[in-house]
Design brief:
six-stranded parallel sheet; 6 strands; mainly alpha
């Protein structure tokens, strides 16, 4: 009961603190940290032992690294290689070098000071992307540069985490023992890569064919935790194992399904992790060393502002973009909490230094919204000399296809023939595996799930094609698009005219009745088989098609009144017969005129 009571209080305080923090424009992370600070030993003392909460909540970081790994397809990395490794490595190395004196001033050795400088060089992915998304600036020059730098930082976390045991024990271990640890770690990583590449996809295929959704979730959790535990056994970080598992599965058909299943656990446990970090802050120590906290914050912000502004100049970004880039990623990051906490656990830093740095990073994150507003005002003073096309490359295909059966395949083939990139989602694993062999970007996923649509890039796509077989599923996807992705232009396959009207009610711009075009083509062939000339058959089908399309639109307003619809159908049929009669009379007159002309005698 004590555990349940503590859990209820944690959730309750988070429910209040996080929305309040977001409403103030400070982001969810500061809300979690504030909740932890309130419940920790420094204020109320409700949770007397933050370490026990922190140990469990570390699985949130593990799952975050797994999802980051899922995002890193080899093709995506190759497309971004110049910005990713060029700008990212330059920012990390330059910022780390400039912030190394912070560790020296705190009394750390040179090698540990370099590690602390690299940790403080990291920025907040959550804060920066939230700011850019809210202003729809992710595809701008500074948005793309910021995304590349943040992605490289996420990659850099892995070797930093993996290096902590060596920083902690290098003075105590003999050289031979150190090499044995290195060989053991490398061997474990190689074995995990082989096992994950050959075994994981087959296990997921077996589970997917069972069509039991909760079993797939269980399999995803098992793989994340299994890889994490294997890495911990090898003396490396659990986060490294989760990251490797994600990368190994990034180019499989299960990527989006895995991400959607892990996301709720990741979000909840990561929030708990930030609460635990907030609990660990020693306020008495911070107030006793207030000038240290302010000094570290100022050095971190100013140092990174200078470095990132210089990087913007080197990358030849437009001048208005440089202050925006510098201010959006100048803060400390959420991985600082992860690395500082892990470093304390590994014995690299003591708790005093970690608490001072965590307090400084928290303060820098709180200042981010205000700094970015100043950066925007400064950027507006420069004139934009050259417009930017906002091309984000192959990372965000413009078309998203829901359902890749016979109908969706035709759409996909036409798009591919025009070199138009698309992402397709389909819940039939057998079909997905078959089509995937031909290089198509198709994933095993249920497109009716909001989280999977978002994971597949619905927020960045321009067009959504709904090509699923089931009418109810198509309607649900259209409703999700209207409610959550109103920018999408939606094209939908309709089962019949009643289903088409439902889709029109949901704001679908273009509705295609699935059998209408095929039946018109068949009618044309039947008329020709009855002896109609080709032109007459085409005219008859064209007349009917135009008439039926107009009838379809006119009947839309009476779709809920059966009596009115029946009367409209009778009137429409009479009108159609009249049209055909008039068309027949015109053709007869033309034919008689032609025959008369041919039989008239020639003039002498």
């Amino acid at each position: 009961m004590n555990f349940l009571f503590e859990a209820a209080v944690l959730l309750g305080v988070a429910i209040i603190a996080v929305p309040l923090s977001q409403r103030l424009g400070l982001g969810s992370i500061l809300g979690y940290l504030s909740a932890g600070l309130l419940l920790g030993p420094s204020i109320t003392g409700f949770i007397a032992d933050p370490e026990s909460v922190l140990h469990f909540a570390e699985f949130g970081v593990v799952m975050l690294l797994f999802i980051i790994g899922l995002e890193l397809e080899p093709s995506r990395l190759w497309t971004m290689r110049k910005r990713l490794f060029g700008l990212g490595s330059l920012q990390m190395l330059a910022s780390g070098a400039l912030l190394t004196p912070v560790g020296l001033m705190l009394g750390l050795s040179l090698d540990v000071s370099i590690l602390l400088g690299l940790i403080l060089a990291l920025s907040s992915t959550a804060f920066a992307l939230q700011v850019l998304n809210e202003r729809q600036q992710l595809t701008t020059p500074h948005g793309q540069a910021a995304f590349s730098i943040l992605l490289f930082q996420d990659l850099a976390v892995i070797p930093l985490l993996a290096s902590l045991p060596f920083f902690a024990g290098v003075s105590e271990l003999a050289m031979g023992e150190s090499w044995l640890l290195v060989l053991r770690a490398v061997g474990t990583v190689m074995a995990a890569i082989v096992f994950g590449r050959l075994v994981f996809p087959r296990v997921l295929a077996l589970v997917a064919r069972s069509e039991v959704h909760e079993l797939f979730t269980a399999a995803a959790l098992f793989m994340v935790l299994g890889m994490a535990l294997v890495m911990e056994w090898a003396g490396l970080s659990m986060a490294l194992g989760a990251f490797l598992g994600g990368v190994l599965l990034a180019d499989t058909v299960y990527r989006h399904e895995l991400e959607a299943n892990i996301e709720p656990f990741k979000g909840l446990l990561l929030g708990l992790f930030f609460i635990a970090v907030g609990m660990s802050v020693n306020l008495a120590l911070v107030f006793d060393n207030l000038w240290w906290v302010l000094g570290i914050t100022l050095l971190t912000l100013v140092g990174k502002l200078v470095v990132i502004a210089l990087i913007g100049l080197i990358a030849r970004l437009p001048y208005p973009e440089i202050p925006r880039l510098a201010t959006v990623i100048s803060q400390g990051g959420e991985f600082d909490f992860v690395l500082l906490t892990a470093a304390v656990s590994a014995g690299v830093f003591d708790q005093r230094i970690a608490s001072l740095c965590i307090a400084a990073v928290t303060l820098s994150m709180a200042l981010t919204p205000f700094l970015y507003q100043a950066g925007e005002r400064l950027g507006d003073r420069f004139k934009q000399k050259k417009p930017y096309d906002g091309d984000f490359g192959e990372d965000t295909p413009p078309v998203l296809i829901a359902g890749l059966g016979r109908f969706g395949q035709m759409v996909a083939r036409v798009l591919k023939s025009q070199n138009i990139n698309f992402t397709a989602l389909d819940p039939n694993i057998t079909q997905v595996e078959f089509i995937r062999r031909f290089g198509s970007r198709i994933y095993y996923a249920d497109a009716s799930r909001l989280d999977l649509l978002r994971s597949a890039g619905a927020e960045q796509a321009a067009i959504l094609v709904i090509a699923v077989d089931d009418a109810d599923t198509a309607t649900l996807i259209a409703r999700q698009a209207r409610d959550h992705f109103p920018h999408l232009k939606v094209f939908a396959r309709a089962r019949n005219r009643h289903h088409a009207w439902q889709l029109m009610e949901l704001g679908v711009q273009a509705v295609v009745r699935e059998t209408f075009a095929a039946s018109m083509e068949m009618s044309n062939e039947v008329l020709k088989g009855m002896g109609y000339p080709s032109s007459n058959a085409l005219d008859a089908v064209r007349t009917f098609r135009e008439f039926d399309n107009q009838l379809f639109k006119d009947a839309y307003k009476d779709r809920h009144d059966e009596t009115a619809m029946a009367a409209n159908d009778r009137a429409a049929m009479a009108e159609l017969q009249s049209l055909f009669q008039k068309e027949f009379d015109k053709r007869s007159k033309r034919q008689k005129r032609s025959e008369t002309t041919q039989t008239e005698p020639e003039s002498p």
